[in-house]
Please model this.
Amino acid sequence: MKKIISLLFILCCIVSCNTEKHPTKTNINQDSSFDQFKEHFVLRLWELYPGWASSQGYHRYDSILVVPNQEQRNKELDFCKANLDSLKTFELASLSDNNKTDYYMIEGQLNSAQWYINSYKSYEWNPSDYNVCGGFAEMLANNYDSLDTRLHHFYLRMKNVKAYYETAKQQIKNPTVEHTQLAIDQNLGGASTFDIDVKAALEKSHLGTKEKEQILERAAEVKATIGDYAEFLKDMKNESPRSFRLGKELYDKKFEHDIQSSYTADEIYQKAVEHKTELHAQMFAITKELWSTYLKGKKMPENKLVAIKEMIDVLSVKHVPADSFQTEIEQQIPRLVNFIKEKNLIYIDPSKPLVVRKEPAYMAGVAGASISSPGPYDKNGNTYYNVGSFAGWDKARIESYLREYNYYILQILNIHEAIPGHYTQLIYSNQSPSIIKSIFGNGAMIEGWAVYTERMMLENGYGNNPSTDSGQASKEMWLMYYKWNLRSTCNTILDYGVHANNLSKEDAMHLLIDEAFQQKAEAEGKWKRVSVTQVQLCSYFTGFKEIYDFREEVKKKEGDKFNLKQFHEKFLSYGSAPVKYIKELMTQETLNSKK
Ligand code: ZN
Ligand code: ZN
Model:
């Protein structure tokens, strides 16, 4: 998402970036200068990337659509260089922890932006990079401003659509077959924004007849331009298309930039492979123990994986009825809160309760559960736990879904999404407010924390069997947890395998279906996803592994003095920064306090 700025303007920007009065090293208040720098930085960032700005709730540049050509990329490169230079004028060691992590995150973002332009170059091989529909659809669907104003900006923004797709056609060289198909599907799929959706919006608006006509006319042109782009892609001669597999060299670098882990891609892959073996061993041990309780009289299959699968299927039958899915989630939240208090695991601010709601209409279609949190420009907004509905689903589909999110997994899902997972992490990150962390928040840290808490809760006895009340999570709960954890573990193996190791589709299906116990449809969906994305599938396991390993390290070092609650609170106090920087700061702090 980029925009047009005149060359003159960008030159002004670069000059002012370089000549801004950044403090000399003798300046005592590095932090307040750094705060000023950040403020300027973000404003310039939004000027340069208006589409990104809109998506974060900053709507000043909504009427601008950037043409993603070489000129624009040069502006972006200049911006990166100027700001990397500015960063160097600060003395990192004298900044607060909050600013230190912000410093690292800005630096990481700028290095990453340079790499994407100079090395990754998806503007050449990924035709689905070019799609204007989402940004326009957002302007109609979201009511941050009056409908008339949004429609007016919608009209102005359409001006560059033709130039946008002309640039796309010129730049695409030897694309992958998969991304070409994706681009055709997504562009044609989104084109209704310029037809049905805009018409519906115009009917509700108070604009004059003349302006309405102008908008409709331009929207029709846009729709035609999009259709033309799809035709261009269908007809394009592409005799030796590029492989959708990224290749090891680019993959390793993308992993570095996207995840910001202290592990390399190779290391995390090895860890995932080892972890899978451990999980299978643990799952088989439980299956043996539980077999006579659930499958008495039936011979246990020789093949360990087949035996585990049968046990999982039997346990999955225990689930809530469809009509009490949301109520069950609502009732579990206070149980989770009480458990955490009782076991002294982390402080949870009682003044910010979580609101569970039926998912709003615009999110419909994606069942399941998700957290929506207010963006950086909507500080007073509520945080919701959205629960999907089964409206329009047939019985078989509902049953299959309920078995997937059965009695056990539903509890793990609530830990992950809500407490002490995403929701709790969010409360902590809001306590050290940083616009940089809201914009560049590290996905591996955020997901890793949620995945870490699943295991941590079970280790502390959540999900015990009330009839035995041993204070320990039940065997059934552990088995289902392991199955759940296998998903993120195998996603990592799949992603690295496909992009860096040439893993075949057949082997990938075996991994997902036989070794991770996924349904065929789910596995097929994963294959589709891995053929058009890279690295993102690794973020869950990588973050989890880093946090878990770090905790074990600290535990070992501190021995009897280790306090889990303190560890959690300290860890979260740094906000959504990459785990490697949190580790560095926490380690330094304990070193300093021991001096
Ligand atoms: Zn059932
Ligand atoms: Zn998550």
About this structure: The chain has three domains: 2-120, 127-235, 256-274+321-572. The first strand starts at residue 355 and ends at 358. The pocket of zinc ion (ligand 1) is lined by residues 317, 319, 399, 402 (CB under 6 Å).
